[in-house]
Each structure stands twice: as C-alpha cells, then as structure tokens.
Amino acid sequence: MTDILAPSRAARRLVWTGAGMPASDGAGVKLNRVIGQPALPDLDPFLMLDEFGSDDPAAYIAGFPSHPHRGFETVTYMLAGRMRHKDNAGNEGLLGPGSVQWMTAGRGIVHSEMPEQSEGLMQGFQLWVNLPAKDKMTAPRYQDIAADLIPTVEVAGGVSARVIAGEIGGVKGPVDPGVTQPIFLDLALDAGAAAALPLPAGHNAFIYVYEGEARVGDDGQRLGKGRIGVLSTGESVTLAADAGARLILVAGKPLREPVAKYGPFVMNTEAELRQAFADYRAGRF
User: N or C: which end of the chain has fewer CB within 10 A?
Assistant: First the structure.
C-alpha cells in the first residue's frame, strides 16, 4: 500500500477503501480482520488490525489462551467488556471499557487474553505495530492505561477525540511513543460537525469507522461503518459527519525495513523467524 502514498504537503484524501473480512483467532474468537487480510496485508508500520464486537458470548468467551509474541507491539483498545491479561513473567492486569494496553513483545513473551464475563457486549480493537530491527530483541514491557487516564479534547464544535497516543490540540496521549511515533485517536463526531486534524506529513495513516458514516477529505468521500480508508500523505485531514460517527484515526512513521512474519512472530529475515520458533520451543521466552 505504501507505494501509492506519494509525499505531499497538501491535505490528505482517501486513496483506498475497503471492508474487513470475517476471521477467527485464539480459541475461536470471531473477529473482523481489517489489516492483515489479502486486500490490505499491511500498512507500514501497521501489521494487523482486528475489530471484535459481539453480545453473543459464544463469539468471544473462549478468548486467547497462552500464546507467544516476538518482534512487534500489540495495542488492545477496549470499548466495552473486560479482558484479563496474564503472562509467563507473572504480570497480570484487567482491561475494562475505555482502557488500553500497549504491549511491547520485544524479544519474547507468552501471554493470554481472556474475557472476564459470560454475557454482555465485548467490543474493541487490537492493532499490531512493527518494531524496527534494532528494537526487536528489546525487553518486553507493558503500558496498561486505565480509561480515566486517557484525555479527551474537543478539537472543533461537535468533534471530540480521546487521545491514546500522539498529540492534538496541545493534549498528549498517555502512551510513551516509540520509533514509529504513533498517533491513535478515538473520534466522536456529532451530526453536522466537521474538523481539520493535523497529521505528520510523513506518517502512513488510516481511518476506520465503527459507528455511523464519515466524510473524509476536502472532496467529502463517504466512509461507512465497518470500512477502512487509507489516507494519502499530507499535513492534515478533514473529517465530517452528516448524522454522527465514531471512528479511529491511526498514523505511524513507516520503518521501510524488510518484514518476515509467520503467526505470532514478526522479524526481518527468515533466519530470525526460525530462531524465534527455536527459542520458543526451547523455553527461552
């Protein structure tokens, strides 16, 4: 996808739109795979985006039992429901509605993510963010951020943003940024509202609408619920909603490095992938 994002100082526009595809992961959790599917395999530095959302416990209750990761970061953003995290280093935490976990897997972690409810809505996102080669074997770490620690800023009349990562309107998100200088905003637009949001010109960026319909760019291209829009490069993006919308706006500095990935491991070469599997089987995570 990055080949079509020609450098520009102009306002951003949609250059590609599409829908996610049904998928299943963990012990059978039903997902909508938005990035990491054949139509959009990645968007440097983003490797995968899964949306989960169901009020049917059968779709999520089996959760994600213990599994390994190496070489990248996982970002779990909960909109509704509760998810308990545990790992093989003794770390444990509970993600509730509106909370975020930004996990840097680094050289290796084995963890589980299990729903802690048997009824009710479970809704949220998990985003995979690549790490540069120099950081792939760093020590694992967690940034567990409670909902009340995520600031909300009104960026225009009728447009508010929960700032998870990055900065907007002088308000910084609580995530400690890495090399990819991530921006992660959860935006709410009232009916008839509009705003022009600044973005770093060199970042790759996308929008995913999870409620309502948004209009994107100066040409007002429509992006409906359940659809992702990849943005051109540029210094800002205009968003509007005729009848209200909720969406995430995510951007990151591309790494432009080779990617070798298989299952839960993301490295730079096939040899590093083989070593990751060998280390995991030998209990070195």
Answer: N
